[in-house]
Design a protein that fits this description.
CATH topology: Glutaredoxin
Radius of gyration: 14 Å
Number of domains: 1
Strand content: 5-15%
Order of helices and strands: EHEHHHEE
Oligomer: single chain
Structural class: alpha+beta
Helix content: 25-40%
C-alpha cells in the first residue's frame, strides 16, 4: 500500500513533513484534504490508524472555527458528542490536524514532522 499524506501546502509543518518523506526516498500520494470531504467511517478509520479514541487529538483545537462552533464545550466521552466532533470535521475539513501520514493501517500526525518516521 502506498504511503499517503493529508497535506496543506500552505502549512510549514505539512511542507516539512512532505520534504522529510522525500528525503527518505518516499513519494507519497498527496491528498489535499482541504479540497475534499471525509465521511464519518473514514474519520473513524483514521482514528483507529492513529490509535486514538478522542477525535480532538486529530483536530485543530486552537483554530478559531473550533471555538466558534462550540466544539470546546463537547465531551468526547459521551458518544453523541464524540459523533458531533467527527461530524464537524466532515462539515469543515479545515478542522483536521495537518499533516497526517498514513502507511497501511498506521498513521501519525507530523507535529513535529519526525513523528511520521515511526510508521515508515
Amino acid at each position: 500500500m502506498a504511503i499517503k499524506i493529508l497535506h496543506n501546502p500552505r502549512c510549514s509543518k505539512s511542507r516539512a513533513t512532505l520534504q522529510l518523506l522525500e528525503e527518505q526516498k518516499i513519494q507519497p500520494e498527496v491528498i489535499l484534504y482541504l479540497d475534499r470531504t471525509f465521511s464519518l467511517p473514514e474519520l473513524k478509520a483514521l482514528m483507529g490508524k492513529l490509535g486514538i479514541e478522542d477525535p480532538r487529538l486529530m483536530m485543530r483545537t486552537k483554530d478559531d472555527l473550533y471555538k466558534l462552533l462550540g466544539l470546546d464545550q463537547l465531551d468526547p466521552a459521551i458518544p453523541e458528542q464524540k459523533e458531533k466532533l467527527l461530524q464537524a470535521i466532515v462539515d469543515h475539513s479545515a478542522l483536521l490536524e495537518r499533516p497526517i501520514v498514513i502507511n497501511d493501517n498506521q498513521a501519525r500526525i507530523g507535529r513535529p514532522p519526525e513523528n511520521v518516521l515511526e510508521i515508515l
